[in-house]
Amino acid sequence: MKKVSYVLCIFSIIVFSIFSSEAFAQTSQPEDNIFTMFVQVTVRNSDGDLITYMESSKLYDVDKKIINDSLDHVSSSVEIPIYELNNVKFQVFIVETITEFNSSTMYANAYYNVTTDEQTYSAAKFQFDSFLTSPGDESTVVWTIARAV
């Protein structure tokens, strides 16, 4: 039930962003069909208690070509559903990464990295005020990307 609620929440956010006059991380360009991208970061301590939750569409160093190429690659091997709203067809990609910290560290960035031919490229970055993590803390980063097809 939680998964269904989570998917409905994400879908609602994307639908709302289509009707919103506010521009998100990217605006549509003729050479680029990404029309929204945002990130959610949660950090939990070693007991599983929520320490922080952040979300944003204010991303830095966004490489639209790398992102679009990676989405093309994923959609060529995995069937990604196509949704339609107001005669606009789009796909929604959700990428989740989980990091467990094994030492105390300052955590201040979340990166959307793409690996091709054993080389890793930073495709987008989310910067936030740093905070101290402890051994056993866990960060979950969820990138949501919607693009017209």
Shape designation: elongated
Give the biggest beta sheet. Answer: 5 strands, antiparallel
Please, how many domains? Answer: 1
Low-confidence segments, ≥5 residues, pLDDT <50?
4-31
Helix content: 10-25%
Widest sheet: strand order? 2-1-7-4-3
The structural class is alpha+beta
Q: What radius of gyration results from the CA coordinates?
A: 16 Å
Please report the distance between the alpha carbons of the first and last residues: 29 Å
Key features of this structure:
single chain, 149 residues, alpha+beta, two-stranded antiparallel sheet, 7 strands
List the helices and strands and how they pair.
Blueprint: H1 2-19, E1 34-44, E2 50-56, H2 64-77, E3 82-85, E4 88-100, E5 105-116, E6 119-133, E7 138-148
Describe this structure in words.
The protein contains two helices and seven strands; from the N terminus they run αββαβββββ. It has helices at 2-19, 64-77, and strands at 34-44, 50-56, 82-85, 88-100, 105-116, 119-133, 138-148. It has a five-stranded antiparallel sheet. A two-stranded antiparallel ribbon has the order 5-6. With 149 residues, the protein is of the alpha+beta class.
TL;DR of this structure?
With 149 residues, this protein is an alpha+beta fold. It has helices at residues 2-19, 64-77; strands spanning 34-44, 50-56, 82-85, 88-100, 105-116, 119-133, 138-148. The longest helix has 18 residues, at 2-19.
